[in-house]
Amino acid sequence: MASAVMKLALVALICIVVAVPVAQAITCGQVTQNVAPCFNYVKSGGAVPAACCKGVSNLNSMAKTTADRQQTCNCLKSAAGSIKGLNANLAAGLPGKCGVNVPYKISTSTNCNNVK
After folding, report:
1. How would DSSP label each residue in 28-80?
2. What confidence tens digit (pLDDT) does each residue in 93-111 have?
């Protein structure tokens, strides 16, 4: 009887472990894909495309942990450094234009290790 209870407990534990989703880290590919619609705006201004704001909002929602936010920050810095003609003020103001509260300044000088 004790052996049967032990087997049942083991099966239940395996089911719980298998059912718990594995956390996926945010990749720079995901960051770039989400902010790509913003590239023309951060270079030349004008109206912020709806797809840009959707991407900014999506990224903010994806970055749930400190590690996610730091990774997103580093990826944004890398992406910003690769955009020729980037207007740093437009990039920094983008979350506000989209109504998204990002807990750090979007800037190539941001220390992403300090992002919480």
Report:
1. HHHHHHHHGGGHHHHHH-SSPPHHHHHHHHHHHHH--SHHHHHHHHHHHHHHH
2. 999 999 999 888 888 889 9
